[in-house]
């Protein structure tokens, strides 16, 4: 099974500052072009005109994204970290116990050694699951889609692919390769089973791996999110309608229907003997375990379907978050400029942010809005803007062309309250407030799809 990584929420403003207020650094009347008291200064260009100053280094090295975690790191095939979640050890113990009980009936001569064989089966089975997930990973990398990590969990594994496929055809291939590899593995184990003696340890292990991979393939081909079959259904509906959101909605609701069927149908099938076991008339421990397993599977499918809907809605609205449209107009001021004079210039220019520059116009720091609010008005003529500013780092410079996930990733990589927005040429475009991004994000999410 694979999933696309949910886009991160926008960075929250610095709520730890006791002087933080939900108000602009300068009066809103001066910053709103539509306000009757707005008095633009012809000497200060608007966003579409020549920028206010030049940046010393508009680009700088890209900030490094924090290394994802998710349990015990097992390796990096194809450069993608593979983690084993703590829950895997629980399911490995469960498989060892259950499979060991079956071995006691089939190979009683093994004695206590049957649990070592069962543990080997659990590890081999999850190695097969890893191959399934690597198939998704290789396909994603082939389509130039970044893969954050692979994680082996309680029920199988997941490949966290950070971006959606660009076309329904690629989405279908990306989803199908996992079950296809599981089917291939099942065939390989079946072929190997033909050359070993039945009733031996290798024969029992190969038979178990053949059946388990067949079950993994069949289960993942069920046409509902978050399973691979659901992503294949999504691709088909996307292809027919031309709208990926419609495909997601259809596959997610089929996934929820599957969750209900698993919750009700799996215990009934087990009790009726339709799955190859003896029919059970009374309620015993096996019946309770079957019901618990069905409830866990149903919850995983139902939750995954809901998360897929939420993620699709996020991705639908993320392009509305554009650095260029959210950026506040800024005026450059030198380090020794009194705060009162800096605010006067900003009000006259209709700006809502201050950038501290050196005598050559190179940006040095950003005056923090929270710090401005914390200075009483009678003290502002005696406070220099440099004492209220935060030094610029490379991560605090963002491109005016960023939007959607790229914008959120850039802001999350370097948490701050304000960012310097620059053009591709390195010239200053304005200042972006994390609070403005958060408000725009919430507003976009509140609109129906």
Unreliable spans are 12-65
Class computed from helices, strands and strand pairing? alpha/beta
* Estimated share of beta-strand residues: 5-15%
State the shape: elongated
Count, helices? 13
Largest sheet features:
5 strands, mixed
Number of E-type strands: 12
CA-atom Rg in angstroms: 29 Å
Q: Please, what is the average pLDDT?
A: 81
Ends distance: 26 Å
**Portion of residues within helices:** 40-55%
List the strand order in the largest sheet: 1-5-4-3-2
- Could you state the order of secondary-structure elements as H and E? EHEEHHEEHHHHHHEHEEHEEHEEH
Give a brief outline of the structure.
By secondary structure, this protein is an alpha/beta fold. The protein has 13 helices and twelve strands. It has helices at 28-31, 86-106, 114-142, 168-193, 201-220, 228-241, 244-272, 285-317, 323-326, 339-349, 369-373, 404-413, 434-446, and strands spanning 2-4, 72-75, 82-84, 147-153, 156-161, 330-334, 353-357, 363-367, 389-391, 397-399, 418-422, 428-433.
Account of the protein in words:
With about 450 residues, the chain is of the alpha/beta class. It is built from 13 helices and 12 strands. The chain has helices spanning about 30, 85-105, 115-140, 170-195, 200-220, 230-240, 245-270, 285-315, 325, 340-350, 370-375, 405-415, 435-445, and strands spanning about 1-5, 70-75, 80-85, 145-155, 155-160, 330-335, 355, 365, 390, 395-400, 420, 430-435. It has a 5-stranded mixed sheet with strand order 1-5-4-3-2. The protein has a 4-stranded mixed sheet with strand order 6-7-8-9. Strand 4 and strand 5 (about 155-160) form a beta hairpin. Helix 7 packs antiparallel against helix 8. The longest helix has about 35 residues, at about 285-315. The radius of gyration is 29 Å and the shape is elongated. It starts with a strand and ends with a helix.
